[in-house]
């Protein structure tokens, strides 16, 4: 089985926007791959007028939040660096006990790369705009911030439609829906940069 | 060969069932996110905190299991199910209409007009513009006979049949997931959110109409819309297609002044001690709809006119008395908001030649796209005139299971009681329109196309499951349909033991990597009584 890869359009965002953006993208992808019984949950973003869908599984929510926190820690240690988060879906191969390893082998059948460019301003999470003026002249005025925010919203929508298009166009590589309880049909992992 | 042909027949029957359920689910997804009558947007708010787990089987309704997508109850969508469709070859077209009403009348004017024209229920005589903001088309395109070679039937084995059905079910599930996400990303959803959450009386409203046909847009109208086509899902005999045409920039309803619902004190009412006894109410001309060949008592959709909203505002008003909203300047604000605040789609969508020009379009034309509907009963069953009605209509011909894909042991024979007496009724092509504003208007236009009481009777038996309304057998078409009672029939649905071969069996402990959605059901008497109907439908597939 081939592994389909989707590189999502890069998003330029600020530190305070990371959580909502990542939640939106990760939940949207997982919703499309949670082929067990789901009760969809609509979530309105606070930053933008965008509604995305969660699959409603608490475990999924917790796992995503955990990974987002880890990513934010990484961003704070590596400011102004482009980053990539990978959401992978895999199948578990039969355990093969061998001389060398007893590991469970994973066969990845789909990988999503979320590309982010976090602009790390010194006072980016502060609500006081005059501080940002003094500390970082490149931060721009409130108008610039609004323009960036509007551009990010457009880009986010593009990314969401990119996900939808990919899900629509590529279906053959998705494994058959297993007979499992819960919404999550396929195991997945979220990999953040180290 | 007999076994092979029986496999093929079973596969065809199951394929048709999947397609039928796909239509119903798609319709449900679209309407629940556009019908303002839906109570709550979130499923989680309807369920108790303890039952948020998807694996809780106690709160799962049978029909939720189809495509593993549990949607909140939406009686509007369920009314519009395939009761009135003859076969899966008929498409479902859902038009989402943005209705703009002129709230320039003060409450006392509205009540005055109501007294004089009690039948002008809708809007109380206010002017109204309607615009199709979305058109969803769900259809099953069947392949030509020569493409469906007989070798397909001959080579159908049990394993290949199972594989094919699993694949079809999986792809349909994926398509519905993406549909669910897409309806929430389109501009009309923003309007739906705003209108759903607003407690004020808005000048805007969302309506939708469902039919089996559509009048194509004009070139100009098409130029104003974008199209998104979902990748079709192939079957042995055709493909499931789903597409939407939508306006990329829709008026921002929140920027429009709204009428608060708080009561207003009228101090100078007739008879008030503060007023002269002989004071007359300001003389008002009779409020008429813009006369374009339609009668005042006809519905808004009966009007055929091509005036733009701007032109309408500039013309001498029919009523002299205005309250200060919206004014002409505000109407310009409305128009400019449509282009500046409306959501414009991302560039990743299929590009449209005039996409960018729409962003700067200033004139918003609320054109009427549909011809005047024929409100008289259709002279022949084959008439394709749109008929505006609500409630259950005639001709339920599609066999549709109202339960989940449930595994049936070989010896078990259960099916929904309501499906035993299903008949192929004479065709008709009704259209339903759901207005979220006037219940009286709905009840007045119910069942105008219903042809025979016989149909009503047969519907009456079954539609109790679908409508919840009290439909008396052999009743006249003037039947009021009570939407509020629809919940009771849904409970009937959920209690059915109707079973279906497609199952997500919780008892199975299969390897996650294996594909065990479908188990071969050798002796399903599920199809035994409906086999006749199935074969009739199959004949339609194969003979075309």
Please name the defining characteristics of this protein.
heterodimer; A: 194 residues; alpha/beta; five-stranded mixed beta sheet; two-stranded antiparallel sheet; globular; B: 544 residues; Cell Cycle, Spindle Assembly Checkpoint Protein, Chain A; HORMA_dom_sf (chain B); Autophagy-related protein (chain B)
Structure description:
The complex is a heterodimer of chains A (194) and B (544). Chain A is α/β, with parallel strands linked by helices and 194 residues long. Chain A has one domain (4-94, 103-120, 146-191). Helix content of chain A is 37%, strand content 23%. Chain A has helices at 18-33, 58-77, 129-135, 142-169, and strands at residues 4-7, 11-14, 41-44, 51-54, 82-92, 106-119, 188-191. In chain A, the strands form 2 sheets. In chain A, strands 1, 2, 5, 6 and 7 form a 5-stranded mixed sheet that branches. Chain A has a two-stranded antiparallel sheet with strand order 3-4. In chain A, a hairpin with a 6-residue loop joins strand 3 and strand 4 (51-54). In chain A, helix 1 runs antiparallel to helix 2 and helix 1 (18-33) packs parallel to helix 4. The two termini of chain A are 29 Å apart. Residues 123-135 of chain A have low confidence and may be disordered. Chain B has helices spanning 2-32, 43-46, 75-79, 107-116, 150-154, 158-183, 187-197, 219-223, 309-314, 328-340, 355-358, 439-444, 453-466, 486-494, 531-543, and strands at 92-101, 128-142, 204-211, 226-234, 238-246, 388-389, 431-434. Chain B is elongated, with a radius of gyration of 26 Å. Chain B is an alpha+beta fold. The longest helix of chain B has 31 residues, at 2-32. Chain B is built from 15 helices and 7 strands. Chain B has a domain at 1-36 and 66-102 and 129-140 and 159-252: HORMA domain (Cell Cycle, Spindle Assembly Checkpoint Protein, Chain A, 2-Layer Sandwich). The model of chain B is unreliable at 44-57, 118-125, 283-397, 407-501, 504-517 and 519-544 (pLDDT under 50). A 7-stranded mixed sheet of chain B has the order 4-5-2-1-3-7-6. At the A-B interface, helix 1, strand 3, strand 4 and helix 4 of A face helix 6, helix 7 and strand 4 of B.
């Amino acid at each position: 089985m081939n592994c389909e890869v989707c590189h999502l359009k890069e998003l330029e965002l600020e530190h305070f926007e990371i959580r909502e953006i990542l939640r939106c993208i990760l939940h949207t992808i997982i919703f499309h791959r949670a082929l067990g019984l789901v009760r969809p949950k609509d979530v309105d973003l606070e930053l933008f007028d965008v509604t995305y869908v969660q699959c409603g599984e608490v475990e999924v929510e917790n796992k995503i939040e955990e990974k987002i926190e880890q990513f934010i820690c990484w961003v704070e240690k590596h400011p102004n660096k482009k980053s990539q988060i990978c959401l992978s879906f895999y199948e578990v191969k039969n355990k093969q006990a061998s001389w060398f390893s007893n590991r469970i082998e994973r066969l990845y059948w789909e990988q999503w790369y979320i590309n982010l460019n976090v602009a790390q301003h010194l006072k980016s999470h502060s609500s006081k705009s005059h501080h940002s003026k003094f500390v970082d002249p490149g931060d721009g005025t409130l108008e610039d911030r609004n323009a960036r925010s509007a551009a990010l919203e457009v880009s986010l929508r593009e990314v969401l439609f990119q996900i939808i298009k990919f899900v629509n166009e590529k279906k053959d590589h998705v494994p058959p829906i297993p007979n499992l309880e819960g919404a999550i049909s396929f195991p997945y992992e979220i990999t953040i940069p180290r | 060969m007999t076994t092979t042909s029986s496999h093929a027949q079973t596969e065809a029957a199951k394929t048709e069932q999947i397609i039928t359920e796909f239509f119903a689910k798609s319709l449900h997804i679209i309407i629940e996110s556009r019908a303002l009558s839906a109570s709550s947007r979130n499923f989680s708010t309807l369920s108790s905190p303890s039952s948020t787990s998807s694996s809780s089987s106690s709160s799962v309704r049978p029909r939720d299991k189809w495509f593993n997508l549990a949607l909140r109850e939406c009686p509007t969508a369920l009314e519009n199910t395939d009761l009135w469709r003859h076969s899966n070859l008929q498409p479902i077209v859902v038009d989402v209409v943005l209705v703009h009403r002129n709230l320039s009348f003060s409450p006392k004017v509205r009540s005055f007009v109501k007294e004089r024209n009690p039948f002008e229920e809708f809007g109380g005589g206010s002017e109204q513009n309607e615009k199709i903001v979305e058109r969803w088309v769900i259809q099953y395109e069947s392949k030509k006979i020569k493409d469906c070679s007989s070798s397909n039937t001959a080579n159908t084995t049990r394993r290949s049949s199972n594989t094919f059905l699993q694949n079809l079910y999986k792809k349909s599930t994926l398509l519905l997931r993406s549909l669910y996400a897409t309806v929430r990303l389109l501009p009309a959803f923003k309007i739906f959110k705003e209108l759903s959450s607003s407690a004020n009386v808005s000048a805007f409203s969302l309506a939708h109409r469902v039919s089996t046909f559509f009048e194509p847009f004009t070139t100009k109208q098409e130029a104003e819309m974008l199209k998104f086509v979902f990748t079709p899902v192939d079957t042995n005999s055709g493909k499931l297609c789903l597409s939407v045409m939508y306006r990329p920039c829709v008026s921002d309803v929140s920027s429009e002044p709204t009428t608060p619902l708080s009561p207003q004190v009228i101090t100078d009412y007739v008879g008030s001690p503060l007023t002269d006894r002989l004071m007359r109410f300001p003389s008002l001309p009779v409020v008429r709809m813009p006369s374009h060949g339609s009668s005042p008592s006809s519905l808004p959709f009966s009007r055929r006119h091509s005036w733009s909203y701007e032109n309408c505002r500039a013309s001498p008003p029919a009523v002299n008395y205005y309250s200060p909203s919206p004014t002409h300047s505000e109407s310009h604000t409305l128009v400019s908001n449509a282009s500046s605040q409306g959501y414009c789609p991302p560039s990743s969508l299929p590009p449209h030649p005039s996409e960018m020009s729409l962003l700067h379009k200033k004139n918003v034309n609320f054109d009427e796209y549909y011809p005047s509907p024929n409100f008289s009963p259709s002279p022949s069953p084959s008439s394709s005139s749109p008929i505006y009605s609500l409630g259950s209509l005639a001709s339920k011909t599609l066999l549709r299971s109202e339960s989940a894909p449930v595994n049936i042991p070989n010896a078990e024979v259960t099916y929904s009681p309501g499906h035993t007496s299903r008949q192929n009724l004479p065709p008709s092509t009704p259209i339903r329109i759901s207005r979220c504003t006037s219940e009286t208007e709905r009840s007045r236009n119910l069942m105008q196309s219903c042809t025979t009481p016989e149909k009503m009777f047969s519907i009456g038996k079954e539609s109790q499951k679908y409508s919840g309304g009290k439909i008396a057998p052999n009743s006249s078409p003037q039947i009021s349909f009570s939407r509020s009672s629809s919940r009771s029939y849904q409970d009937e649905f959920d209690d059915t033991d109707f079973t279906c071969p497609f199952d997500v069996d919780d008892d199975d402990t299969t390897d996650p990597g294996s594909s065990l959605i479908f188990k071969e059901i050798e002796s399903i008497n599920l199809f035994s009584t409906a086999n006749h109907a199935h074969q009739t439908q199959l004949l339609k597939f194969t003979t075309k």
